[in-house]
Amino acid sequence: MSTPFAKLPAWADYGLIPVLNLLVAFAVAGLVVLLVGENPLRAAVILVDGAFGSGQNIAYTLYYATNFIFTGLAVAVAFHAGLFNIGGEGQAYIAGLGVSLVALTFDSVLPWWLTFPLAIAGAALVGALWALIPAYLQAKRGSHIVITTIMFNFIAASVMVYLLVDVLKPLGSMAPQTRDFLAGGQLPKLNFLLEALGLSVRSAPLNISFLLALLMAVFVWALIWRTKLGYEIRTYGFSPKAARYAGIFESRIIIITMMISGGLAGMMALNPIMGDQHHMSLDFVAGAGFVGIAVALMGRSHPVGIVPAAILFGMLYQGGAELAFEMPNISRDMIVIIQGLVILFAGALEHMFRPAVQAALASVSPRSMGVPAAKGEGA
Amino acid sequence: MDALVQLLDATIRVSVPLLLACLAGLYSERAGVFDIGLEGKMLAGAFAGASAAAVSGSAWIGLLAAVGIAVFLALVHGFASITHRGNQIVSGVAINFIAAGSTIILGQAWFRQGGRTPPLAGDSRFNAIELPGAAALRDVPVIGTIYSELLSGHSILVYVAFLMVPFTWWVLFRTRFGLRLRAVGENPAAVDTAGISVTWLRYRAVICTGILTGLAGAYLSVAQNAGFVKDMTAGKGYIALAALIFAKWKPVPAMFACLLFGFLDAASIRFQGMPWPVIGKVPVQFINALPFILTIVLLAGFIGKAIPPRAGGVPYVKER
Prior knowledge:
Strand content of chain B: under 5%
Structural class of chain A: mainly alpha
Low-confidence stretches of chain A: 372-379
Distance between the termini of chain B: 66 Å
Oligomer: heterodimer
InterPro entries (chain B): ABC_transp_permease (IPR001851)
Number of helices of chain B: 13
CATH topology of the domain at 69-317 in chain A: ABC transporter involved in vitamin B12 uptake, BtuC
GO cellular component, one term (chain B): plasma membrane
Radius of gyration of chain A: 22 Å
Low-confidence stretches of chain B: none
Subcellular location (chain B): Cell membrane
CATH class of the domain at 69-317 in chain A: Mainly Alpha
CATH architecture of the domain at 69-317 in chain A: Orthogonal Bundle
Transmembrane segments (chain B): 7-27, 47-77, 89-111, 156-173, 238-264, 284-303
Mean pLDDT of chain B: 87
Main location (chain B): membrane
Shape of chain B: globular
Largest interface: A-B, 49 and 48 residues
Distance between the termini of chain A: 13 Å
Order of helices and strands of chain A: HHHHHHHHHHHHHHHH
Strand order of the largest sheet of chain B: 1-2
């Protein structure tokens, strides 16, 4: 597929344009804040302070960021194959089953460090299987993966409501959730890391799955840029025709990529279930699967971009909660708007500033654009 | 008989937003612009409609506001995906989030009722219309019941929605605009070669989408319910999308698909917890998931094949 836009130097492509897009997204979010009658600058100060003002707040920010690293990586891996996995929400939700079944079975028998690997496997497996069906249908039947993964989100929600209300709920309990896990199903907190840096943390849910998330970021980088499979995934994403011509087996790539993506989304379930709540409750994903889309777009599908983007959204979540105390007009739903604006400006409108930036660069130094000024727009 | 009529009556009421949103998607997707943002436009329309109706006291001003905001969001989608050739799905997802967040934030800031708008009554709401002769025919067996109970006594938007079906068919298949709209969804290069602007044609298609999603939103908050409740579309935009695929992007089948999904919805509420013959008790969640499951089975090609417009989802790049 020929790209309709001329090439820019790398620093503009990976630095300037994403920053411009983000600035516009936040400027529009500021307008919404104005519209509800608050001062956007004061809101920003409260938000940043709420996210990073104390050790406690930083721990919360990183706890939320953990979720978004997993789901952001999940969306990014699929993006590399040219697939849009909107189903991260459902894959993470249903993967909660894998986590809880492992935890409920072994929490009285094994210590946490033996339950944890089993739960990781359970989460990844269930998430991957939930992504397998849309992947198979795309690969073999040509059903559009966007539509099928959306449908699977709704089906996952129905399945989980049924299971939590009618099957997994302990007898005599009213709340639709599993029983609380014993010590073997609880992940250790990471607050000592922040305390080692001289920060004080009272009690925050930051736990060892944060480290797992960082490990997965390294794994995704190695997979996509350092393995044969990763090369095939990128080739297929760049041009399915070229991939086919090069002898890359199309359906294999679609299915494997989607299963990796589903597995990564599934691991998100570990963080809230085993790391924080110690039981599985209704709607524990709480939109993290969708935030992953914004995170992947903002991070340009590269782990080096995804981790900071996830921390930024963690900041918005944690700071947003603090903001809601200070400015009652602004609830945490503000994040949903910002998320939408980031997806709009960093995703759908990512090329908006490209012609302008290109023209500006060309007028400053024509040679940096690689085309003689007289010829104008190349390609 | 009475129970059946009531069930069908409920089916009509819950099918209308699906039908309007589904026809909305039809215009856009037939022109080659995929639209996942039906949900968001409907939600924003519902909010704007209920807010304007509450403030002005007129349902018609509410309707105007609903259509206005939905068209605005449709133009944002067009700006991103037609003018800037962005990813249509990404743009649709963005619009859904922007609508979901801002309706809650603005609703709380303006009305302070936990995301609700003030309740509507009287002229600020679309009320039921009695069809002519409904009272006279009431006692005629079968036909009278169907006419006076089932067909009469809905709000004007219900009749508009069902009239939109033949109208859409006529526009798409009997007018020059419709022919070109379908052509631009199949082969934009050919349309361009004929000297017709692909961009302007696609913009007109997304404006149609905006108008219809606005109507759907206004129906939800100003006709079916008396006010806006947060997240009141509750996935209806996606069910409409499923119905659109189920109907293979055709107006009349779209109506039947929406009626089918609406019937499932109405029946799941009515028969909640009741045992079924042979299969026993069916969990209500299964019925709720049924539209999505059916669509996937269809997409998998097990009940006929759903083939989308060929140029759908692909931004048009004019060769220079």
